[in-house]
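Z., the sequence and structure:
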Amino acid sequence: MPVDMLYQGQSTNNSLFEKLLAVNFDVGALRPYIGNDGKSYITQNVHGEPKAVRTNADATLTKEAWKQFDTSIMRAARQRLRAVADVRAAGLTYGIPNGMGTTVLEYQKTSDINDAHISMDGLVLGSNDRPIFQSAFLPLPIIHKDFQFSAREVATSRRTGAPLDTTMGELAGRKVGEMTEKLLLGRGGTYAFGGGSLYGMTNFTSRISYTMTDPTDSSWTPQLHLDEVLAMRTLAQDYKHYGPFVLYYATKWDKYLDNDFSAGKGSITLRARLKMIEGISDVRTLDYLDTSSSTYNVVMLEMDPLTIRLVIGMEVVTLEWETMGGLLKNYKVMCIIVPQLRADIDGNTGIVHGSI
């Protein structure tokens, strides 16, 4: 899965971005469609309003075909992407207007200040302290995946009236969605640019690490695991983070989480018992949290904007352009959706990573 940047107004890899530079990053210019009159149009942002504009570019799809393409690709991009969906649902997002024209987000890390004073008349002079601010930077790379149709495939579609097969687009959309999820989990590697780096929940340098007992060990019991989760919550509280938390588990945990918490008729599952902990809002399994070398990961994530948010510069979109004299129609599914894992200036965060 390629991840590209624009640097000093130039593309670092793909000529597609040169086309976007020429239209001030308006992605609508690379989504031409066939109008009812058989002519080609694009939708451009004019003073904040979408407007249909005639274009000389050869369009391949009708407006309805674009909608069908977009629907299938967006559906594929969102399949089983639980962590990204959870963060979105919690409202922990930060939008970047014209994200294509912004390569780095600058933000501030802050320190805490002293406690408030208590007095009867409010005249006692308190310490006039100020928080300490420290600048930090977050790269905003583009996540993208390409697919293609030949001019002959397009011609056949037009002659027969059969829509183009959306399978390749769906696969591309799924790969883009998977990468956004993997970046959030720390399974997409780190990405450095402009003085900052992208991290996920399992490779964030400020995360709180905790060693858990291997569930395959003979000493492991559901009660022992419950005690370890309580210890993880205590660690987060020691770092001044109090929830609400979501517990995320790698898939190898499922057979233990969904088994009885204790022997005996009417027992609840371990998963249900963990949900009863104060401050734990949910217990969920994630597809990409385990690797071949680390299969029993657990992450306790505080759903708070001071701990995590998704920075969104561009939602998933599909662009079109042609090469080979028009014989090849190229498509690119792309987005700017990156995680921002946050810690204060002292390194305090609400992310606890448990591993064996």
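Residues 4-14 have pLDDT under 50 and may be disordered. The chain has eight helices and 20 strands.

Let me know what you think.
H.
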